[in-house]
């Protein structure tokens, strides 16, 4: 391994994006990275180890890390060779969907504990070392839902909005220490994430929710959401590739959307600062014109709007 290899610590590598990113970085042909791929339950490390192949024990090591635990974070960092993290990737995350009235405050707090405070906890832990060495890169896997609210995803979107405000504010101070902050904002990605949400929905009966809201959720939102994943969903490989590019950039961007097919939907918000256009259009598409939404998603799936993608975005 090259002497100048950067140590990359990634949270949430038992599946999905974290797993794929860890393997892509470990396979870097120039061996620029020493990857510490972490997960909260080492009982799940089999899939990562299989995917890591010959990189295991060389450019990739596996370690335990629960982003909701101070002790776990401290123990993980103390086990890192040399003790320094050059690149931190906050990837661990959980979702939550459903009518607000039917969700418990405990479940909502768990989303913030993981998606927001989990990232904050890790950033706090690596910052002193990065500041001392006057270098570092903090990458946070946010979401397009960190840019725009999505119906029945109120709490998840709020947690990603929180992450966005945190990173945008911190980025200004940290530039003074030559530390970069990057928010990666995928649209839907074909990982276990959607399956876990659907399992959560299957188990929940959303107590206290009126029947009209429940029927909107089950009969309009869920089919549209499934179609969104099918039509504009990206592979974890494609999103991980975009993150690898962000990590390899000499001057990493603050924001990087990964899915050009999703950008017509995010553009609605940018087009109208009053927010009326985005809220009304989303409302009409879901509640009044679901067939048009279906056609629109089919159109996005065929890729025809790709020519109108803004600068800095990539398919
Ligand atoms: N999939 C999408 O559509 C999508 C879209 C935009 C953004 N994202 C974001 O992408 C990131 C990765 O998600 P994914 O799609 O790869 O889903 P995933 O396959 O469900 O992966 C989520 C990972 O986070 C881990 N995790 C959850 N709580 C944790 C904790 N307390 N400590 C450490 N790890 C924990 C999970 O571990 P366990 O196996 O132990 O649960 C799992 O490894 C998340 O931040 C998510 O919000 C996903």
Automatic annotation (TrEMBL):
Keywords: Lipid metabolism, Oxidoreductase. Pfam families: adh_short. The keyword Nucleus does not apply. InterPro entries: 17beta_DH, KR_dom, NAD(P)-bd_dom_sf, Sc_DH/Rdtase_CS, SDR_fam. The keyword Metal-binding does not apply. It comes from the Eukaryota. PROSITE patterns: ADH_SHORT. Residues 6-187 form the Ketoreductase domain. Belongs to the short-chain dehydrogenases/reductases (SDR) family. PANTHER family: RETINOL DEHYDROGENASE 8, RETINOL DEHYDROGENASE-RELATED. This is Retinol dehydrogenase 8. It comes from Echinops telfairi.
